[in-house]
Design brief:
By secondary structure, the protein is of the alpha+beta class. It is built from 6 helices and 11 strands.
């Protein structure tokens, strides 16, 4: 009889221990589930916040082509991009890659101009997104040699004041830990053309830069005549509004309207380091 009672007591103790263990395990799993859900929610919130601001300009052609390292809006009437846009981070390593051949951009539905249009034209195949901005990888570097990313430029302009501005943009990208860049030629009627496909030769080129490194946006616009020049870069600073009127584009339209209007009216370059 005594043995029977002891066995029953032992069995009850074992069952109680098992139930307590199961309850603890369930609590732990429940806690893990809440923690994981919270992590996923926070991650999604972060991602959604980071994609709220779309830095691409408007397009007058609705032919926007997205590549891995930059995006462009192709204008078939002028056989070149009306703008090329990308985010440029400070490039820590500049590799000396072999220059590839220029090739047509198969993502342009209407077909990008053949590089042969430039042959014996007296004009360089001027990069819009510079190859020098993309030297952090061979893939990125090669992507700049699509003919959708070039525009006719005289050599003394391409290798002169325009190259100086490109180098300054890389300097700012490093100094400010990344900036947004939009660049292109001013395309309008009655421009000179080259080649069988009549590639237009812009008389002005522009760059519009946006920085938010200190938690406050600042913007600067450059409008540069496509001729040789020894002037300092700040002589070419203009309100972004002026570039918008010439191009018919809207730069950074997803910015708050009040902030966008304020930034685009200003031609103050003092917040950008020109030293």
């Amino acid at each position: 009889m005594r043995n029977t009672i002891l066995k029953k007591m032992l069995l009850c103790l074992m069952i109680s221990t098992f139930l307590i263990s199961c309850r603890k395990e369930a609590d732990v799993n429940s806690s893990d589930s809440v923690s994981t859900d919270t992590l996923v929610h926070n991650t999604n919130t972060f991602e959604s916040e980071s994609t709220i601001f779309d830095f691409l300009p408007s397009s007058t052609t609705n032919q926007i082509v997205k590549h891995k390292y930059y995006t462009l809006s192709y204008n078939e009437a002028y056989e070149q991009a009306e703008w090329v846009a990308y985010e440029l981070k400070g490039v820590k390593s500049y590799n000396n890659y072999d220059r590839p051949f220029f090739i047509e951009d198969n993502k342009v539905k209407t077909g990008s101009a053949d590089w042969r249009n430039y042959k014996r034209s007296g004009y360089d195949k001027g990069h819009l997104c510079p190859a020098g901005d993309m030297k952090f990888s061979k893939e990125a570097y090669d992507e700049t040699f699509l003919t959708s990313n070039i525009s006719p430029q005289k050599h003394n302009f391409n290798d002169g004041i325009w190259n100086t501005l490109e180098q300054k943009v890389r300097y700012w990208a490093s100094k400010y830990n990344g900036i947004y860049v939009v660049t292109g030629g001013v395309l309008n009627k009655n421009l000179k053309t080259i080649g069988n496909e009549e590639v237009a030769v812009p008389e002005y080129f522009y760059k519009v830069l946006l920085d938010n490194s200190r938690g406050e946006y600042k913007m600067i616009g450059f409008l540069v005549p496509a001729v040789e020049s020894n002037k300092p870069l700040y002589d070419f600073v203009v309100p972004v509004d002026e570039i918008e009127k010439l191009t018919g584009l809207d730069f950074y339209p997803k910015l708050n309207d009040g902030l966008e209007n304020k930034l685009e009216k200003s031609n103050d370059y003092k917040s950008w380091s020109f030293n």
